[in-house]
Every structure is written in structure tokens, then in C-alpha cells.
Amino acid sequence: MFQINENYLKLPGSYLFSTIGKKVSAFTAANPDKKIIRLGIGDVTLPLAPAVIEAMHKAVDEMGNADTFHGYAPDLGYEFLRTAIVENDYKARGVDISIDEIFVSDGAKSDSGNIGEIFGDNNRIAVCDPVYPVYVDSNVMAGRTGEYIADKERWSNVIYMPCTADNNFSPELPKETPDMIYLCFPNNPTGSTITKAELQKWVDYAIKVGAVIIYDAAYEAYISEEDVPHSIYECKDAKSCAIELRSFSKNAGFTGTRLGFTVVPKELKCGDVSLNALWARRHGTKFNGAPYIIQRAGEAVYSEAGKAQTKEQIAYYMNNAKIIREGLLGAGFEAFGGVNAPYIWLKTPDKMTSWEFFDYLLEKVNIVGTPGSGFGPSGEGYFRLTAFGSYENTLAAIERIKNI
Ligand SMILES: Cc1ncc(COP(=O)(O)O)c(C=O)c1O
Q1: Are 129 and 376 in contact (CB under 8 A)?
Q2: Structure pTM?
């Protein structure tokens, strides 16, 4: 008789977005005349940049011709894309990464979920609280998290690092020693970030305790301040302790076309074993490459036209972020983020819970956001709004919020 992976049974249901969906549907059914504005989603809304579309069209035509047709892609990704990544994302920032340390993938969600496969089951993980749920859930599936303690909304074997207004949403070094540390800056959901000096402390700590850092830099393109690192490898010695995850989803709108990459430096070792070799083995066995057409589209993001056009898209979203942030502050809310990230994290007024504020906003001004408690217990009493809507809707939403 076959057995299942019983760790899956430990996972509590992921009710956040389905509960939001149900509440919004019920409201719409009862109030068909009301125009709802959605500032809850973490998905982009602008179309792909013209340079990207042009590269895709060209690649589609190549696929229709026997002389230029492409079958399976190389395991690590096409060299043209890995070279563009190395030159633009790393060399241009003074970071020395070689193309065989880059693994092209179909996005940072898969990579953040899969990377755990090359680590032992007994490793103890540390995560920020609130957190992007994939880091925790993928470790539950792997059996690393212990038991779920429902009343505390915590896993018994996970080290939680609270990120609240008290510590400026920047985690403190944990008291218990982790083996794997998940960090994400700029952060989803809090929109906070970390200075280079602060990140260096994490690198030094990881080296001292023998931990690995999984650094999710999916939102690096939104950084506007000088002192904020775009890559963990800007920190000294980070190549010996950190893996970096990157995505084309938020910097170039590839959420529906799927492209990302992971950097596993050759210096990163466990004893004599190279993690780069382990990830190469895993990638080669279980992943058959991102499509040629999409990798060409990714290359176009780094062309002069592609850079200028995607920069404009980010400026559009960040203008929305500014409108939300300043509008909220002007209306007397405590609001955070929105300067180096497309997320604005606000404190709910009058000690409302995150869900109470969700209902209040929906019913009173017909705006949908995301309750902070859905990202972890320390998110209770907070609420996330995103800058990915249209300019017009963002303006209208803030006008409505100002009047409540
Ligand atoms: C922190 C973080 N990492 C990764 C992802 C997923 O990126 P991708 O679209 O490349 O899978 C998201 C998406 O919202 C995210 O917020």
C-alpha cells in the first residue's frame, strides 16, 4: 500500500486569498452598484514592455524555422541570458559572479520552494514574521518545521523573527541558532528594507554560526535609496554563505510569462561539498529549462530600450506607492514601506484587527487590501496595500480613504 507524504497533512489551509475572494463576491452580490477598487493583489498590471514583446515575436519566428528552431534549453539557461544577468545585475554593481553560478528558472516562487531539496531534513529554519508564505510551507512539506501550534499560529521547530514597527520591520539576530535563514529585502509584505551595513551583520552572523542565507531579492528593482543593497553579494564574504533568488516578475512584468534565476556561488560549501554542484545536479535532473522565447524576452529586459521601458514601469508603480503612502500619512494613518518597495504596510486604526479593518474598508469605501495577519502572527494589526493598480484607481482609492 502506498503512503503519502504526511507532512502535507500538517499544512493548515491557506485561506487568505480565498477568504478575501469570498468576502468580495458576497459584497458585490449585495451591492452591485458599488465600484470596488482592488489594492490587494501582488500581481503587476502594466503590459510587457515593447522591447520585450519585439524580442518575443522574433523568437517565435525563429521557432517556426528549422534553421533557427530551439529544442531543450541548456540546463543552466542560455548563455546569452546568463551573460546579460552577470553584466547588468552584478558586474555593474561591482559584484563578481560568473555565468556558471547563475541558474535560470521559471521564477522565484519555484526556486524558493525547491531550494530546500539540497539541504538536510534536520536543518532548523529562521523566517521573518510576517513572511512570504512559500518559505514556511515548503519547509513544512519537507518535514523541517515540527508541529503546528494552532493557538500561536506557529510551527514548533521554526525560529520566528518578528518584524514590527518596534524594530522598524528589520529582524533582529535570533537568540536560537538557525541553520537556514530566509531573508527578503525589499520585503513582501512590509515594504521595508535593510541597509548594506545591516545586511553585512547577517552575513557575518551566518558565517559565524555556519548557517546559509536564502536571500530573496525579487523586489530589488524598486530600490530608490542609495544605501540599500540590490544584491546580498554586495556584502563582504556573502558568497561563502548566501544563495540569492531573483525574478523577472516585478521588475519587468513577467508574472504570466515566468522567468527568474538563482545564484549559487562556487564558494558556498558545506564541508567539502559545493552547493553549486548540488543545485546543478538538482536543476539538471528536475527542470528542463525556461522556454527559449521567454529567455530571449528576458535578455531584452537588459537591452538599452528594455532598461528604459521597464524603468518607466517601475516609476509608474512607485508613483502609485508615493500617492498611497503620502495619502495615508496625510489622513493620519501610520504607514510604512512604499519607498523601496511596491507595498505599503499600515497600522490598522483604533486597534482593529487586520480582518476587522479589511471588512471596514470594503464596506465603508469599497476598497480591497490584504490583512496583515495572513502573513504571520506579527502581521496582526497591520494591513497591506499594493502599488500595482492603475494610477487612476490608486488616486480614487486614496481620496476615498481620506474621507473615512
Ligand atoms: C517575496 C517574493 N518572492 C517571490 C515571489 C514570486 O516570484 P515569481 O513570480 O518569480 O515566482 C513573490 C511574488 O509575489 C514574492 O513576493
Answers
A1: yes
A2: 0.97
| Helix H or strand E encompassing 28 | helix 16-30
In the chain, the domains with their CATH numbers are: 13-42+307-402 (3.90.1150.10), 52-302 (3.40.640.10)
Catalogue the E-assigned strands of 207-310.
212-216, 242-247, 260-263, 269-270, 273-274
219 CA distance to ligand 1 middle (Å): 8
Residues 23-38: pLDDT tens digits? 999 999 999 999 999 9
42 Cβ inside 6 Å of ligand 1: yes
Number of other CB atoms surrounding residue 344 within 10 Å: 30
Q: Are 59 and 268 in contact (CB under 8 A)?
A: no
Tally the C-alpha atoms within 13 A of residue 243's C-alpha that lie toward its C-beta. 25
Q: Which helix (H) or strand (E) holds 343?
A: strand 343-347
Helix (H) or strand (E) holding 125: strand 125-129
Nearest in space to 170 (alpha carbons), one of 196, 207, 209, 208: 196
Pairwise CA distance, residues 152 & 12, whole Å = 13
Residue 403 has pLDDT above 90, yes or no: no
The answer to whether residues 243 and 211 touch, using CB atoms and an 8 Å cutoff, is no
Position 181 pLDDT exceeds 80 = yes
Report whether residue 184 contacts ligand 1, using a CB cutoff of 6 Å.
yes
User: Ligand 1 in contact with 247 (CB < 6 A)?
Assistant: yes
Task: Kindly state if the Cβ of 190 falls inside 6 Å of ligand 1.
Answer: no
Is the CB of residue 39 less than 8 Å from the CB of residue 399?
no
